[in-house]
């Protein structure tokens, strides 16, 4: 009987904790879902301190473009199905399933901090709030932390921790929300397959 009471209290505690997390994250969910397009600048920093800058453009659902400034030759485009990485110098293109990448979360038609993802941490830090998430089906695949300004609410940055513990931060600046973005931004020219073979 005592074990059942303890188990019931633990279950109740977990349910309350989950309800509090949902309440705390609701306004950030609402903000992300209100942003259909976004354009601005980004600075990417990895665990080794290496830095790259460029232009970010997002059109939900499913589309994103990261145009890196020289000397980086990279161009990354999400077209709704694939995350396509192009080396503009070598004219090489690689495809990854968008659903398998962390970018898929912020490109969804409807963003939720529940369902197949789980909030692992909510950290208020002065004028910002950090929300960390993992995929329930693959919790060892790493996690993403979204950082929001609180007044007014705006996405400030995100960081990705991969399974090896390597962190990549993407800091956003000069953002414009819900602007018109041409659809051809999210298309990429692939090298001719015959040229690749021969």
Would you write up a description of this structure?
The chain has 198 residues and is an alpha+beta fold. The protein is 21% helix and 44% strand. It contains 3 helices and 11 strands, in the order H-E-E-E-E-E-E-H-E-E-E-E-E-H. It has helices at 2-34, 103-106, 193-197, and strands spanning 37-46, 51-59, 63-68, 74-79, 82-87, 92-97, 117-125, 128-135, 143-150, 153-161, 167-177. An 11-stranded antiparallel beta sheet has the order 6-5-4-3-2-1-11-10-9-8-7, covered by helices on one side. Strand 9 and strand 10 (153-161) form a beta hairpin. The longest helix is centred in the first third of the chain and has 33 residues, at 2-34.
Q: Topology of this structure?
A:
Blueprint: H1 2-34, E1 37-46, E2 51-59, E3 63-68, E4 74-79, E5 82-87, E6 92-97, H2 103-106, E7 117-125, E8 128-135, E9 143-150, E10 153-161, E11 167-177, H3 193-197
Antiparallel strand pairs: 1-2, 1-11, 2-3, 3-4, 4-5, 5-6, 7-8, 8-9, 9-10, 10-11
